[in-house]
Write a structure and sequence with these properties.
It contains 15 helices and 13 strands. The chain is α+β, with helices and mostly antiparallel strands. It has three domains: 158 residues, Alpha-Beta Plaits, CATH 3.30.70.270; 58 residues, 5' to 3' exonuclease, C-terminal subdomain (DNA polymerase, domain 1), CATH 1.10.150; 141 residues, Dna Ligase, domain 1 (2-Layer Sandwich), CATH 3.30.1490.100. The chain is globular. The termini are far apart. The structure holds magnesium ion. InterPro entries: DNA/RNA_pol_sf, DNA_pol_Y-fam_lit_finger_sf, DNA_pol_Y-fam_little_finger, DNA_polymerase-Y, DNApol_IV, Rev_trsase/Diguanyl_cyclase, UmuC.
């Protein structure tokens, strides 16, 4: 009874990724930095490299490395303290250009995008269309960007990485497996250092070896991840492109049993809420670029105020923003029935964006605190001011139910 074969809908997926984004923006601002080795990140010896130019990579420099070591490896490099606000601005400019040109756009990080161009082929010639879009971004912004074009997200992303720097690559339908076969297993998205080591210990170097392995062997060695990695190695991926506007915000609010005018208490609750939500951001490997505060008074009139901010997931950045919004919004002496906060404009990304002000010490502090939260619950460590507020509510990872990816350094 093979009559009811599963219909396979062929998709056309475009992946766009700005090349060494922070470095490129710095070079746009100061053209004397072109072609010179460049390190962007925390500038003190305790700082961390957030991005590095291709010229530094031959010296063994990579992002996530301590600035001190990077400077030792490549002493001639120019070191620049990054600016999250500037990068957020350029990220938005590129987003706007793409958004106008594609039906469904997913912004997967500050410098990375997926678009679903399925069904466009007969009208426009989707690849030609994508190529023109890439040229438009380059000519309008001056920023180099690479693209991958394939039938799913995983293969298009790998194609972009193979095309880099400043180039493009199309993988024709049916050619996914031969394209992936000769590559290192490290090129498969999701193969982190630990998985890489496990597979290396088994003598697996090339994607082709995984393609030739029975799927149950992979599952036995790597558990549930084994199946996903096996599928990716074989060029199989049906995850959808999730439109930008559909991307969820995260929020929390609290209704009081008795209406209050205790400003001190309200502020402390807002701090506790911000701590909790920003932890949720980090746990979901997300950054937000818009924060909002909501107040409902005892007469049920509800007001909210929002603020666009540079991408971040750091408490020490978010708390002052939230408290600032509250000061502007709150009408003194009115009884408050409910307060709440919301983080929106979420993209995938880790704290690297905040590495510029922060040093390793601060980063390790976040890492340590989040580690305790992961183990003992999200209310196990809180700021002293937030201790008075009892319940913010315990939440699941609001993004995907996956375990946290804390400080997984982003590859460029
Ligand atoms: Mg990039």
């Amino acid at each position: 009874m093979e009559l009811f074969q599963k219909k396979v809908r062929l998709r056309t997926i475009l992946h766009l990724d700005l090349d060494t984004f922070y470095v490129s923006v710095e070079r746009l601002i100061d053209s004397s930095l072109q072609q010179k080795p460049l390190l962007v990140g925390g500038i003190s010896d305790r700082g961390v490299v957030a991005a590095c130019s291709y010229e530094t990579r031959t010296f063994g420099v990579h992002s996530g490395m301590s600035m001190k070591i990077a400077k030792e490896l490549c002493p001639e490099a120019t070191v620049i303290k990054g600016n999250a606000g500037t990068y957020s601005k350029y990220s938005d400019i590129v987003t706007e250009i793409i958004k106008e040109k594609v039906p469904v756009l997913e912004k997967s990080s500050i410098d990375e995008f997926y678009a679903d161009l399925s069904g466009m082929d007969k009208f426009f010639g989707a690849y030609k269309y994508a190529s023109e879009l890439r040229q438009k971004i380059i000519s309008e912004t001056g920023l180099p960007i690479s693209l991958g074009f394939a039938q799913n997200k995983v293969v298009s992303k790998v194609a972009t990485n193979e095309a880099k720097p400043n180039n493009q690559l199309k993988i024709d339908f049916g050619k996914e497996k031969p394209f992936l076969a000769p590559l290192s297993i490290k090129k498969i998205p999701m193969v982190g250092d630990k998985t890489f080591q496990t597979l290396r210990n088994l003598g697996v170097r090339q994607v082709k070896t995984i393609q030739d392995m029975p799927v149950d062997v992979m599952q036995r060695v790597l558990g549930a991840n084994g199946l996903t990695i096996w599928k990716r190695a074989n060029g199989i991926d049906d995850t959808p492109v999730i439109g930008f506007s559909e991307r969820k915000s995260i929020s929390t609010e609290r209704t009081f049993d008795r209406d209050t005018i205790d400003v001190h208490k309200l502020r402390n609750i807002l701090v506790a809420m911000t701590e909790n939500l920003s932890y949720q951001l980090r746990r979901g490997n997300k950054l937000c670029a818009c924060v909002a505060v909501k107040i409902r008074y005892s007469d049920f009139n509800t007001y909210s105020k929002q603020l666009k901010i540079p991408y971040t997931s750091a408490d020490h950045v978010l708390i002052p923003k939230i408290l600032g919004l509250f000061e502007k919004l709150y009408q003194k002496r009115l009884l408050v029935r409910l307060i709440g906060i919301r983080f929106s404009h979420l993209v995938t990304g880790n704290y690297q964006i905040n590495l510029f002000e922060d040093n390793e010490k601060q980063l390790n502090l976040y890492k340590a605190l989040d580690h305790i939260r992961n183990q003992y619950g999200d209310r196990s460590v809180i700021r002293a001011v937030a201790m008075g507020s009892k319940t913010i509510g315990r939440m699941q990872n609001p993004f995907n139910g996956q375990p946290p990816i804390v400080l997984a350094h982003r590859k460029q």
